[in-house]
Design goal:
- The protein contains four helices and eight strands, in the order E-H-E-E-E-E-H-E-E-H-H-E.
- The protein has 150 residues and is of the alpha+beta class.
- Strands 1, 2, 3, 4, 5, 6, 7 and 8 form an eight-stranded antiparallel beta sheet that branches.
- The longest helix is centred in the C-terminal third of the chain and has 15 residues, at 99-113.
- The protein is globular.
Length: 150
């Protein structure tokens, strides 16, 4: 990281991911970079996201599983600049095949994004399990950065 004065620890970076409303998943598509927004949630130090069972994202992840997840938030405006908090994860995306792990991941995603719907989670998740792919990002590196100038 070039601006080491803005570098933050892993606990900071995890907090950014936990709070972020979405993250951008970046991967290789055979020609260059391919990036899409995802709704990640974590269980411990594993990050999960869900998607359709097929499509360009899945094709890329199968062939080139190395990914980056980026989350950021604007925390204020400064003279001709923006204050922010950001986090990056580098790792390997792995399709979750274990039913218990997949269920726990979907529960974590639902708890983060739809906490008011948890009463109906079991019925909904049971109907969606076969139609939904879940990926886990095995984290190789997590970094955080913050700009707080006034």
């Amino acid at each position: 990281m070039r601006r080491t004065d803005r570098e933050r620890d892993a606990a900071f970076a995890w907090a950014v991911f936990d709070k972020a409303p979405y993250a951008v998943l970046s991967m290789y598509d055979g020609e260059g970079g391919y990036a899409v927004p995802v709704s990640p949630a974590r269980v411990g130090e594993k990050v999960y996201f869900h998607c359709a069972c097929e499509g360009k994202k899945v094709a890329c992840l199968v062939r080139w599983p190395q990914v980056t997840l980026t989350a950021a938030e604007v925390t204020g405006l400064a003279h001709f600049s923006v204050n922010y908090r950001s986090a990056n994860i580098r790792g390997r995306a792995v399709r979750v095949e274990d039913e218990d792990e997949k269920w726990a991941a979907l529960e974590a995603i639902t708890r983060k994004y739809c906490p008011k719907d948890m009463a109906g989670f079991e019925k909904y998740a049971a109907a969606m399990m076969a139609k939904t792919a879940v990926y886990r990002v095995d984290v190789a590196e997590i970094t955080g950065k913050e700009r707080t100038a006034t």
